[in-house]
Amino acid sequence: MKVITANFVTCAVKDCKTSAASFPLHFHDAELEMQEIDFQPEFIRNVIPRIDWEGLRVTANELGFPSLPDSKPEGKALEDERTLKDLHRLLLETQVMEGRLVCGNCGHQYAIKEGIANFLLPSHLV
Amino acid sequence: MLPTPDTSHVSFDTIYEPSEDSYLFLDTLSSESESKWLSERFQKTNSDSLGHENNNSVPLVVEAGTGSGVVLAFAAAHSQKIFGRQDILTLGVDVNRNACLATRETVATAIKTNQIPTTDSGAPNLHTIHISSVTADLCTSLRPGSVDVLLFNPPYVPTEELPRLPTAAENDPATVQGLSRSAKFESESFFLSLTYAGGADGMETTNRLLDAVPGVLSSRGVAYVLLCKQNRPEEVKEVIRGWGGWNAETVGSSGMKAGWEKLVIVRIWRQGSDR
User: Fold this and answer.
1) Of A11, A94, A113, B223, which is least packed with CB atoms within 10 Å of its CB?
2) CB-count burial class (<10 Å; 0-12, 13-18, 19+) for A104
3) How high is the pLDDT of residue A67?
4) Which structural domain, as residue segments, surrounds residue A111?
5) Helix (H, G, I), strand (E, B) or coil at A107
6) Is a pLDDT exceeding 70 seen at residue A17?
């Protein structure tokens, strides 16, 4: 799974939906793999508007990436190739192959194996 | 006609083999009328002078219940024709881990075949990025308001019982490896039943998906859901219109056949969100 996925998923437990602590899920013991993808500044510029920036900052920090800017790049900052390249690398080229995603609200752990995260719940949580 | 994604690598022991319903999905998304509608909704705009939400933002296309991945791969590989742009993100969801693995490959192959130039002559193109295939139940793991296009070809066959959901453990490759021959057969039959068995009126799973639609779609979001005649599509559309503020229209149909499995595809979107 590409790192950007963490920006679009949340805890599958119903009661966690209303809790701010359930997003983003937290990476634990993540094993990363890089997959090279042609750098397309336009693509990244069009991805940025739909990113939850605070959530991404948390994710980047947990995966050991250099700190992202405090606020989402806008206007002139979207022309800065360094920023766009960093985001390209983090969001699209970095894949989490093994590890866990953990909910900050209920503590449930979702395993990631061979790049596939498993969000199915045990029956008592459905 | 746009090429159908290759699924020759997929083992259909536990995965639904692309069939008439899958192909109706491909034909509907790529039809003149539907691709025009979608392209107008998602195409890039040059000016943002009125201060509207930046529509250049890449759409996130999600399929619930991908199976082999043939539908999502088709949308990914032909995004220019269907959505009027090369740059989209795709995410696949299925309760069967094998289907997730299959989908990942089907989508990657289709993008490579159709969107990435093989020679050095062309400049690198913008192309679809498949961000992940995840094992999950419908939309339960998706962040609210995040999905722009939701595709669903449900288990729509009326059955006496609705199969239960698989557990995380049943999807663990280590568990599957340890199964006896008969237990393996039973497990495969169970996963296959999930691909078609829809419970009462064939609607039990579809109704759960529909319940999630208003929460999971973005403001410009749209869902496509396939229904068979026994699902009573006209009633389903009335229910959706009764949500308040939502439209539902039939935008594809398997045609004149009188068989019980006459199929339609319904488009669901917010009223007043036409552009």
Assistant:
1) A113
2) middle
3) 81
4) 3-125
5) coil
6) yes
Q: Rounded to two decimals, what is the model's pTM? A: 0.95
Give me A117's structure tokens: 């995260």
Looking at the 3D structure of chain A, how many domains does it have?
1
Segment A53-98, tens digit of pLDDT: 999 999 999 999 988 999 999 888 888 999 999 999 999 999 999 9
pLDDT at A117 > cutoff 60: yes
d(CA B142, CA B116): 29
**A5 contacts in chain B (CB < 8 Å):** 91, 131-132, 134
CATH number assigned to the domain comprising residue A79 = 2.20.25.10
Distant-in-sequence, close-in-space partners of B171: CB < 8 Å, separation ≥ 6: A118, A120, B95, B96, B97, B135
CB nearest to B91's CB, from A8, A40, A47: A8
User: Is B83 within 8 Å of B39 (Cβ atoms)?
Assistant: yes
User: Residue A116 is nearest to which of B44, B101, B137, comparing CB atoms?
Assistant: B101
At residue B256 the predicted structure's pLDDT band, cuts being 50, 70 and 90, is: low
Q: How far apart are CA B113 and CA B107, in angstroms?
A: 10
Find which of A95, A119, A123, A126 to mutate to test the B interface (most B CBs within 10 Å of its CB).
Answer: A119
In chain A, which residues touch B (CB < 8 A)? 1-2, 4-5, 7-12, 14, 17, 23, 37-38, 40, 42-43, 45-47, 49-50, 52, 92, 111, 113-123, 126
